[in-house]
């Protein structure tokens, strides 16, 4: 059964409701069977502490086993298997005459949520890697997305060789604009600058 835990980004620890305290290991945390239950308890924690600025996150337990969060990386694969270059993506943005991020969000959600994306859009998303980020890494969630992006880009060596990266395909290009990084049930499209949160249906690996 899939379970969820409450993670405090500031303290780098997990909540145990039985002892009303934070623990360094996810195995010591209380597990919730439904995410809304964990969200309710997180709100209660902030209310009792009278601190609504606490950086609490609800994470699937399997994503944090061993003190790590696992991010999935999805690449946009056109029908003919040839990858779109960032330059080609920019051309599509200009042709649509829409703000870049609006079009990006609309397109990514359309492809991810479509039952037959290749037939409708001529492309599909394929999971190409899983990236493990240690909870000891002291950075924001946005910076962690940037780290995942860096780890799936080839610089001096193939990104397949980077620490914490597990490729799920035999070969793939570097992550680029229009690709997606997911953690838990949250999905973020890679934009020309930064990331755009998108709403997509749950995808299997």
Overview features:
2 domains; alpha+beta; single chain; 205 residues
What's the helix and strand layout?
Layout: E1 4-8, E2 13-16, E3 21-23, H1 35-49, E4 56-60, E5 68-78, H2 86-96, H3 100-113, H4 117-121, E6 123-134, H5 141-151, E7 165-167, E8 180-183, E9 186-190, E10 195-198
Antiparallel strand pairs: 1-2, 1-4, 2-3, 5-6, 5-8, 6-7, 8-9, 9-10
Describe the structure.
This protein has 205 residues and is an alpha+beta fold. It has two domains: 4-62, no CATH class; 68-198, no CATH class. Helices cover 27% and strands 27% of the residues. It is built from five helices and ten strands; from the N terminus they run E-E-E-H-E-E-H-H-H-E-H-E-E-E-E. The protein has helices at 35-49, 86-96, 100-113, 117-121, 141-151, and strands spanning 4-8, 13-16, 21-23, 56-60, 68-78, 123-134, 165-167, 180-183, 186-190, 195-198. The strands form two sheets. Strands 7-6-5-8-9-10 form a six-stranded antiparallel beta sheet, with helices on both faces. The chain has a four-stranded antiparallel beta sheet with strand order 3-2-1-4, with helices on one face. The longest helix has 15 residues, at 35-49. It is globular. The two termini are 17 Å apart.
What is this entry, summarized?
The protein is α+β, with helices and mostly antiparallel strands and 205 residues long. It has 5 helices and 10 strands, in the order βββαββαααβαββββ. The radius of gyration is 18 Å and the shape is globular.
